[in-house]
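Minutes, project check-in
Item: structure for the 182-residue chain
Input as provided by the requester:
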Amino acid sequence: MKDNKTTYMDLFASFFRIGLFTFGGGYAMLPMLERECVENHSWATRDELLDYFAIAQCTPGVIAVNTATFIGCKEKGSLGAAIATLGVICPSIIIILIIAAILTNFASLPAVGYAFNGIRVAVAVLILNAVIKLIRSNLKQPVSILICVLAFAASLFSLSPVVIVLSAGAVGIAYGYFGRQK
């Protein structure tokens, strides 16, 4: 537990906002996670958030839920983890229940299909924005660029994300111990 000024309500409200106003899943949530957790509350540094995001991607479950759990635990222990997690999933549960109740009556309307087409494009842009931010903040050394290119190539061949992330971590460790020594 780090910040005694952080309240359980702060955690719940911040992650509720993240869950409520971010569409498109974990990747699309990265910019809002960064704004809330790094810029607004200083619950994590950008590097810590990227670490949490990477670990969340490799562990079972939804990336946003896992990230909320990690940050909540860091700030307020197990109860903080539970509250942050509840905060990020509540909007989805509420929205899904409302949509399920309403959509069954309107799913066949062309406007609904068109709306979903537009939403998909906007979500793709949000994900691309998150990717660009990650690339700018992490590709500062030749070894980072090499890892990026190899990871991208591996993903084109549908290699498991867990294998890609663990391999990148192993390369980072090897470079840290052996590549910098002269």
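Outcome recorded: The mean pLDDT is 87.
No further action items on this chain.
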